[in-house]
Amino acid sequence: MASVNKVILVGNCGRDPEIRYLPSGQAVANVSVATSSRRKDRNTGETVEDTQWHRVTFYDRLAEIAGEYVKKGRPIYVEGRLKYGKYIDQAGVEKNTVDIVATELQLLGGREGMGGPSDGGDEGGAPPPPRRMAPAAAPRAAAPAPAPRQAPAPRPASGFDDMDDDIPF
Hints:
- By secondary structure, the protein is mostly beta strands.
- Helix content is 6%, strand content 39%.
């Protein structure tokens, strides 16, 4: 039977990535990602926020991209796999570790801190263009009934004769 070892995180970076290169020349970047969840305490009724910290490791080109674009506080989406390890601390006590070896990285949020006008690099410049988002469904008022339509003309049988010519490229 096949097995699955997959992790998906959406959270905020806790620190800038630490980038290093192995003797083979392979790039490695480490970052901490915080994820938070909220729940209501049964006893007090207060909302309690629980933050978990995750150690994420990027390799090769993904490490270089993370090192260039991921910054402390920036929201990111990470896909990867769990990797368990052990080490012995300075007191001689064996410690267990859990790392996420990233296979995908998606930068979330705006372009702040990316060298554009929004990070103060170009004072007096134009504001950044708005992010394109899917339109939200807006409530509609009752519209007048549309006029009756004529039946559409029959379409040709081939798949290419009915294509529009207003393709933007």
